[in-house]
Amino acid sequence: MLSTRRYQHAATAGAALLAAACVGSFAHRSYVPAILFGLGVLVLTEAALREHRRLRRRRLEDDWARRRALGESPPPLTPCCLLARSSGKDIHDQNCTSDHTLSRFLDRIEQQHREET
Ligand SMILES: [Zn+2]
Questions:
Q1: pLDDT tens digits, one per residue of 78-112
Q2: Which domain holds residue 117?
Q3: How far apart are alpha carbons 23 and 28 in whole angstroms?
Q4: 52 and 13, same structural domain?
Q5: Which residues have their alpha-adjacent CB atom under 5 A from ion ligand 1?
Q6: Are residues 81 and 31 in the same domain?
Q7: Residue 83 and residue 66 share a domain
Q8: Are the C-beta atoms of 95 and 81 separated by less than 8 Å?
C-alpha cells in the first residue's frame, strides 16, 4: 500500500510541475513544448487517478477481509474483484469477495445443463 501511495504522490507532483512548465511555455510563446508538457500533464494525472482508485479498492478489500475475519458475513464488493470486471465476470482472482465455491460452481453448471435440455 505504501508504494501505491508513493506512486500517486509522485505522479501528482509531476503533473503539477508539468502544468507549471506548460503555463511558462505558453507565456513565452513556445507552443510546441507547451503542448508536449500538456500531454505529460494528462498522462501523469491519469496515473495519479489510477493509483488513487487502486488504493481505495485495496482499502475496501482490507476492510472486507477484516470484517470477515471477525466472523461477520459482509456482502461482496462491487465488482467482486478487479479481474472479474475486466473479464466480464468469467474469471475471478484469488482476492475475490464473492462466493465461488465448488458446490456453487457445480450448481451453476447443473442449472445451465437443465436449461439446455
Ligand atoms: Zn470475483
A1: 888 888 888 888 888 887 888 877 777 777 778 88
A2: 77-117
A3: 9
A4: yes
A5: 80-81, 84, 92, 96, 98
A6: no
A7: no
A8: yes
* Contact present, 92 and 67 (Cβ < 8 Å): no
**DSSP classification of residue 90:** S
Arithmetic mean of pLDDT, 4-28: 96
Same domain (yes/no): 44, 86: no
d(CA 78, CA 40): 32
Largest CA distance in the chain: 74
> Measured in angstroms, how far is the CA atom of residue 54 from the centroid of ligand 1?
16
Report how far ligand 1's centroid is from the alpha carbon of 100 (Å).
8
The structural domain count of the chain equals 2
- Domain shared by 13 and 55, yes or no: yes
Cell of 103: 458446490
Whole-model pTM: value is 0.72
